[in-house]
Amino acid sequence: MEIITTHKNVDFDALASVVAAKHLYPEAQIVLPRSINANVRAFLSIHKDLFPFLSPLAVRHDEVSRLVVVDANRWERLDGMAPLMNRSDLDVHLWDHHPDIGDIHAASGRQALVGSAATLLVQELERRRAAIDPIQATLFLAGIYEDTGHLTFPCTRATDARAAAFLLEVQADLNVIQTALRPGYGLQHKEILTHLLETAQRITMNGHVVCFAKADLNGHVSGLASVVTMLRDVLSADAAFGLFWDSRRRQSIVIARSGPDSVDVAALMKPLGGGGRPEAASALVKGTRPEGIENWIRELMAQNGHASVPIFDLMSFPVFTVGPDETVDAVHAQLKGRGHTGAPVVEGEKLVGVISVRDLVKLERPTQRSAPVKAFMKRDVITIDPQATIPTALRLMVKHDIGRLPVVDNGRLVGIVTRSDLMLYYYNLI
């Protein structure tokens, strides 16, 4: 007997991957975990006759000769597969895209850092010129889109886009995908989000704005990931941790969401027995309440940092500066000669202001041109600490509509970071 299975809490990438794997292993039966995300369950309710599945409870483990695992690399994430863990005679095939190293050791398959597991399987189907009907193409594209945020998440690779293009060529239906991927958001989700917003703690750690929010659950609630995503968006946090206590099962569900170049939430979930991607991860912790888990996460962040590149590593130094008593004409000539649009004004080592070419060109009277720049410089200077993060610098520039930030350490100017520096960093040009 050959079986294909995937992780618990089946999402569209998992469903797409097991169906795609069926093309590669036609003799295998798909075993779908019992816990299925709400939007996937809604899709299956319409298409269930097209995708026959076995329950994990129906598997006779002693008869299984080959196990194909997709979109997962750890035994604990599978449903009902524990009896197969120590089978030395089992032929294991693994198709996975997660960056962390798992404990499922496979003889065949493919593992690569792409946006979705479905991408790997679609690549192979295209290579083999397998026949894919429009319904299957739609499901496969839904899997890729869900895990890559419609090809916008940082985990997205060119490979994902090429796979998506291929699926559109074979008639994947974007109207169906738009409906299928719409997160289920009902009254229960609204009540949970309201509670999280009312009780959330918003703090700054390692230069990142992080929020922790806790709630008790009355039974199983699907779609919590979308609630935590909304929580992060509403609170404008770099990272959000939703900590949910399931009193019936005496376990905590941890869902973490983060922004690009921010907190690596997958690294924080791994010590808790969970996993995921740097911007989206989760964990299930039995016997420990959310308060204890929050303390663990805070300690992990304090110990390991999990901060992005500090401004110190990006800033330019030494900094071209002018003195407060230099004349407007002299400063203007220096800025023009160097091709600078502005400069910090420093007295000794202390930053006392900034002056820009835009400020200087407005001065036309001879008395103004011969006056010291301290008469026209901006004294209320927005600065940044050398250990601050790049997202912090970006927020300051956007908020104050400025193109440069002097980097100040205990009142002393140590460098400068510009809008151009951030653009080069974010576009991986440095």
UniProtKB/TrEMBL annotation:
> Which GO BP terms, alphabetically?
tRNA processing
Q: Which cofactor does it need?
A: Mg(2+)
Pfam families membership: CBS, DHH
Q: Does the keyword Secreted apply?
A: no
- Annotated CBS domain ranges read 315-373, 377-430
Spell out the family assignment given in the record's similarity comment.
Answer: Belongs to the tRNA nucleotidyltransferase/poly(A) polymerase family.
- UniProt protein name: NanoRNase/pAp phosphatase (C-di-AMP/oligoRNAs hydrolase)
Organism listed in the record: Desulfosoma caldarium
